[in-house]
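Figure 2 data, in text form.
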Amino acid sequence: MSAGDEKFWAELPLGRGVALLQRDAQGLAAFGKPAGVLSHPNEPADEPRALLTARYVLDGEFFEWRTEAGETRRLWLLNRLDSATSGVILAAATEKLAGEIRAQFKRKQVRKVYHALVFGAPRQPLELWRDLLAVDKSGGRIRTNASAGHVPAESQMTLVRPGRREPRVTLVKLEPRTGRSHQLRVQCAKRFLPIVGDQTYGNFPANRAFAKIAGTKRLFLHSMETAFDYEYGGRTVHFAARAPLPPEFEKFL
């Protein structure tokens, strides 16, 4: 079955609330992942709450499942979002294409745009953030520190819209130019702009108060847009996908 086959995409075992946002003829696809859904299952028990409700092969970084007709299907995951983060996530229908797109990420040629709801307000409407981070991935957990590291991290912050009601929150656009673990969350927290609902680096009393008003404990970080050009089959292909801002963001703006 070819990557452009309608049946392949129509029969994907999509996870709860996951939507196919965009795909091209080469087999590159973008999905909208809701908050709380895993990019991939870490063990079989996680499959019901993952991007696809299917087996995931960690070594090959692909989902694998069998159709009702007994045919084996695969979909290669190209990037990840924390389970608490919503928005655009990419996958490819062939291993060859997956290799090309992963190379784009390594060359930092992918434009990613996030929107976040933060407590407080930035000092300037446009800021370039540069930090040296320390990233600890021991014990199966990831923790990032912005005060005593040597890993460079850079992001651009743009004010989008201030909130109109208490508690005081602001919608900002975040464009990471490096891809460090928890980079945006840590950089926001360092500047006293913690992301609403961040249970690791955020303002915990403010999170509790906000959750009572909003009726949700989600992390208010959303992968809004992803765009890039890639070479495939001897030609340049442009790909862009956008995941609409979830309605809970709008409630306090």
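Caption note: The chain is about 15% helix and 40% strand.
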